[in-house]
Amino acid sequence: AVNMVPFPRLHFFMVGFAPLTSRGAYSFRAVTVPELTQQMFDPKNMMAASDFRNGRYLTCSAIFRGKVSMKEVEDQMRNVQNKNSSYFVEWIPNNVQTALCS
User: Judging by beta carbons within 10 Å of its beta carbon (0-12, 13-18, 19+), is residue 29 exposed, middle or buried?
Assistant: First the structure.
């Protein structure tokens, strides 16, 4: 396991939520794990106004809730990390943590 704060001076978190819906959105539908992970890294779902294309992720924690497969979650997070490898630092091994609350 990797500490989410690898250096004491780099302790600022960028929080993203998925699915992020408005109060008036009453239509409920099942969201797939690939959709959730795509939304999780979408700048529109971040709680800070920042352009993530100008920086890199040191660490990442993805916490899922509900009836989802942990294997599917880990596979999808690995896919996101491989497709967007330029946005993740390579000098911190295993810098993505996943958790499932059921």
Answer: exposed
